[in-house]
Specification:
Elements (H helix, E strand, L loop, with lengths): L1 E6 L3 E7 L5 E8 L11 E2 L1 H14 L10 E6 L4 E5 L9 E2 L7 H5 L2 H11 L8 H11 L1 H9 L2 E5 H9 L6 E3 H4 L14 H6 L9 E3 L15 E7 H10 L4 E6 L3 E8 L9 E6 L7 E8 L3 H5 L19 E2 L17 E2 L1 H4 L3 H23 L5 E5 L7 H10 L3 E4 L4 H11 L7 E4 L5 H18 L15
Helix pairs in contact: 4-5, 9-14, 12-13, 13-15
Length: 469
């Protein structure tokens, strides 16, 4: 029996797969929400593990006599520290949304200057390594245990595997490990030089392996053995695009724009580069990613979908910078909040919702202009893609058709296909680019407004101009 598992931030999902590698039935459990004040965001590990295990139980992964192979897709930067001998947690889960390491990162400008070249990632407080460095400073008892190897620090996938095996360091895959700032761009294991930069040791970390071809003895305890593993965004990319060329715009809790770059890492200033698939015995595949810290939850503050799709602009001076958790790629301005123009602030909620979605489309256009030209399809996935204004606005500002993926569970589907070896790109609905000419013209005015909000020219690092197709 093959079972796919999606370790999400708000929900955990599991599904038993049929002979064709498709989910027979998807079961979901609410994940415990992050708690904390100021920059701290933590999750109860036992509550999270309980949600995961209930989902797996309901999917039949713990049925007596079941011969289970598990495919696991995980949120990337959430982590905790546990006892090696028992896998009992020694900390809460430190969420990927946690930014306690902001001051730690700000105090190291030289490291920040080197890391994009070394790892394909910026020095960000969202990532594992700086947050773990802060936890070590805050908790001397943990530091000593980590240095001795009695304690292990790792992402959710590694901890759950250790938990289900009754202890140990667990195991993670290359697409997850590369997001920690501890793997060199182009590498496939922890990098000794990067470990030294953060004061960490290899002995306190999980092992790193490929996404497929996993050793058959890699146990998931009563849930069988691990057959495939990768990060959630990589799984969504695999489901939406397969091996084809193009771009994927994944609109969930956040917005992630991913463009595959082949088997050789490619970097663009201001953007993220890293592996999205590491098949056993084959070359690692890489992608470039642009992050917008906005999604459905931001739009829903101003009313539910659907959002009206007008033929003319009903609010030409309403603008929004939709990043609610600090501005993402390519600016990386964590202290700049969700921002509206004066006209948008004075408008009713329906107008502000549309301004959020316009801003999201404009942010995506800027990202794809920097990463392009993009061959192949531009495919849109995630819950927010179901609001008709979203694909219509993206097609309008990009000046090309987009395909809305007819698959609400892309993350689960990607790892399901990887596990079964029967991955296929789901069907989609094409939205043409001839609608909303007013929105394409509005992009230039929004870009000028954005430059005033950020206090700098509205272009990525290196001085390249925004705009263009």
């Amino acid at each position: 029996m093959n079972v796919a598992l999606d370790l999400g931030t708000t929900r955990v999902k599991a599904a038993r797969l049929d002979a064709g590698g498709r989910p027979e039935e998807i079961v979901a459990e609410d994940a415990p929400p992050p708690a904390g004040a100021d920059l701290v965001r933590e999750v109860d590990p036992e509550a999270y593990a309980g949600a995961v295990e209930r989902a797996l139980d309901r999917a039949g992964a713990a049925a007596p006599g079941a011969d289970v192979r598990l495919g696991l897709a995980s949120q990337r930067s959430s982590f905790l520290v546990w006892e090696r001998a028992t896998a009992r947690p020694k900390t809460s889960i430190v969420s990927w949304q946690d930014r306690r390491a902001a001051a730690w990162c700000d105090a190291r400008p030289e490291l920040a200057a080197r890391l994009p070249t070394l790892t394909g990632l910026p020095l960000s407080p969202h990532y594992f390594a700086p947050k773990l460095a802060c936890v070590r400073e805050e908790r001397p008892d943990l530091r000593d245990g980590l240095d001795r190897g009695d304690l292990v620090a790792g992402t959710l996938d590694a901890w759950l595997l250790a938990r289900w095996s009754g202890g140990g360091a667990g195991r993670t895959d290359v697409t997850m490990a590369a997001r920690t700032l501890l793997v060199a761009l182009g590498g496939a294991d922890w990098d000794d030089g990067l470990l030294a930069e953060f004061g960490l040791s290899r002995e306190a970390l999980p092992s790193v392996g490929p996404s497929t071809g996993i050793a058959p003895e890699t146990s998931a305890g009563r849930f069988g053995v691990l057959g495939a593993a990768l990060s959630d965004q990589a799984s969504g990319l695999l489901a939406a695009l397969g091996d084809g060329d193009g771009a994927v715009i994944n609109l969930g809790t956040g917005c992630f724009v991913l463009v595959p770059s082949g088997t050789t890492p490619r970097t663009v200033p201001g953007y993220l580069a890293g592996p999205w698939l590491a098949p056993a015995g084959g070359p690692i595949r890489y992608a470039i990613e642009g992050t917008v810290n906005a999604g459905g939850a931001v739009a829903d503050r101003f009313g539910p979908p659907p959002t009206a799709v007008p033929d003319v602009d009903p609010a030409p001076d309403s603008f929004c910078l939709p990043d609610a958790a600090g501005v993402g790629a390519p600016y990386w301005r964590p202290t700049v909040p969700l921002t509206f123009s004066a006209a948008a602030l004075a408008a009713e909620d329906a107008t502000r919702r549309r301004a959020v979605l316009e801003g999201l489309a404009f942010r995506v256009r800027g990202i794809l202009a920097d990463l392009g030209p993009v061959p192949g399809d531009v495919r849109v996935s995630g819950g927010l893609a179901n609001d008709p204004f979203v694909p219509a606005s993206l097609a309008a500002v990009l000046g090309r058709s987009v395909t809305v993926v007819d698959e609400p569970e892309a993350t689960l589907l990607g790892v399901a296909g990887l596990l079964s070896g029967r991955s296929s790109v789901p069907s989609g609905t094409t939205v043409e680019a001839h609608a909303l000419p007013w929105l394409r013209a509005k992009y230039e005015r929004w870009n000028e407004w954005l430059s005033r909000v950020l206090g700098e020219p509205a272009g990525p690092p290196g001085g390249r101009a925004r705009g263009g197709d």
